[in-house]
Amino acid sequence: MNSVGPLIAVVVALGVLALLVFPGGTPAPVPAKDFTLANALGDPVTLSDYRGQVVILDFWASWCSPCTETLPQLHALEQTYRDQGVVLLGISVDRSESSFREFLDDSGIPEETILWESRAAAQEVRDLYGVRGIPRTFVIDREGLIRFASHPAYLTAEKLEAWL
Predict the structure, then answer these.
(1) Burial zone of 110 (CB within 10 Å; 0-12 exposed, 13-18 middle, 19+ buried)
(2) What is the DSSP annotation of 65-115?
(3) pLDDT tens-digit series, residues 124-148
C-alpha cells in the first residue's frame, strides 16, 4: 500500500496551517463575516456598511496590556490613511462597558470606532472570527475579503498600503 499520498497531504495541510498561524502571516483571502454591534455611543455598526473601504478590525480589552499598547497605534495608522478610505473598528471583549470607557477617556480614541454592545454580543463576533487570544487584528479589503489576520504589531504601514 502506498503511504506517500497521505503523507504529502499532511505536509501540505501543515504548510497551509503554518501560513495562517505564522505571526504576520496573510491568510488566503476569504470573505469577512458580517455582523452588527453597537458602538460606544449606542449606534448600530454593521461591517458590510464599510464595503468599499479598508477596515482594520481589532479585538481587544482594557485589561490586556498588549491591546492597550497596540490599539492607539492602529488608531494612528487609521488617521494616517483615513483620506484613502481606511477605517478602524475595535471590538472590546471587556466584561463591562465601564471597563473600556475608562481606557477610551484616556486614549483619545473616538467612541464611534469602538464596538461593545454587551460581553455576550462581543464574544459572539469574536467566535465568528475564530479569535482565541487578544489582541487580534484583521484587515478587510474594499471587496470585503480578509487580507491580514494576526497580532496588530505585525500590521505595518507598508502592509496596509498594499490594500489601498
Answers:
(1) middle
(2) HHHHHHHHHHHHHHHHHGGGTEEEEEEE--SSHHHHHHHHHHH---GGGEE
(3) 999 999 999 999 999 999 999 999 9
Domains of the chain: 26-161 (3.40.30.10)
CA distances from 60 to 22, 29, 103, 125 (A): 20, 23, 11, 12
Tell me, what's the pLDDT at 106? 86
User: 142 with 163: CB under 8 angstroms?
Assistant: yes
DSSP at 50: G
Q: How far apart are CA 7 and CA 3, in angstroms?
A: 6
SS3 content of the chain, % helix, strand, coil (to 5): 45, 20, 35
Question: Which grid coordinates are listed for 1?
Answer: 500500500
**pTM of the complete model:** 0.83
